[in-house]
Amino acid sequence: MISLSPKLAIHSLIGALHLFLCLLGLLCSQLQAQTQSPEQTLVAMEKCRDQVIAGLSFSEKMKMKAAMSAIKSKPDFVAANNAVKNASTPEEQIAAKKTLAKVKLDLITQQDSSLKPVVEKIRIAQSTVLR
Predict the structure, then answer these.
(1) Disulfide: which of 15, 33, 60, 87 matches 92 by Cβ 3.0-4.6 Å?
(2) Taking residues 33-41, what's their average pLDDT?
(3) Number of structural domains in the chain
(4) All residues at 6 or more sequence positions from 72 whose CB lies less than 8 Å from its CB, including other chains
């Protein structure tokens, strides 16, 4: 059996509890998303990402920031970002933002594989809104 220090065990428990509360809140958001307008869905997508990022450690936030800076000039990111900017209807904007979110998270994982757990948390949170 692996023994954790009390401080590490508490930190792990708090992290798990935070994730559970985020997912619970997002489940409620997902239930509301069925009757939301496209604009409300876009706000919910951003809120999911922001909730996960708010729960990250300072070190994880700095890694995410560095990875984002590194991927902003990648052709896949630029194309997906331009598709969002050029979307003419709210429905097209949602589809483009879904694509951008996927591309962004894929590129972040490629840029820094240590961020894979963070990226997975964001994917789970966003999937509750984007069903």
Answers:
(1) 87
(2) 65
(3) 1
(4) 78
Tokens at 21, concatenated: 């509360």
Q: Which two tokens stand for residue 38?
A: 């496209």
Residue 59 in any domain: the answer is yes
110 in a domain, yes or no?
A: yes
Distance in angstroms (rounded) separating the CA atoms of residues 76 and 88: 20
Containing domain of residue 102, as a range? 6-129
Alpha-carbon span 123 to 60, nearest angstrom: 16
- Would 1 be classed as within a structural domain? no
pLDDT band at 39 (very low <50, low <70, confident <90, very high): confident
Choose the most confident range, by mean pLDDT, from 26-30, 40-44, 74-78.
74-78
The answer for residues whose C-beta is within 8 angstroms of residue 38's C-beta and 6 or more apart is 90, 91, 93, 94
Cβ burial 58-84 (10 Å sphere, 16+ → b, else e): eeeeebbeebeeebeeeebbeebbebb
Domain assignment of residue 45, yes or no: yes
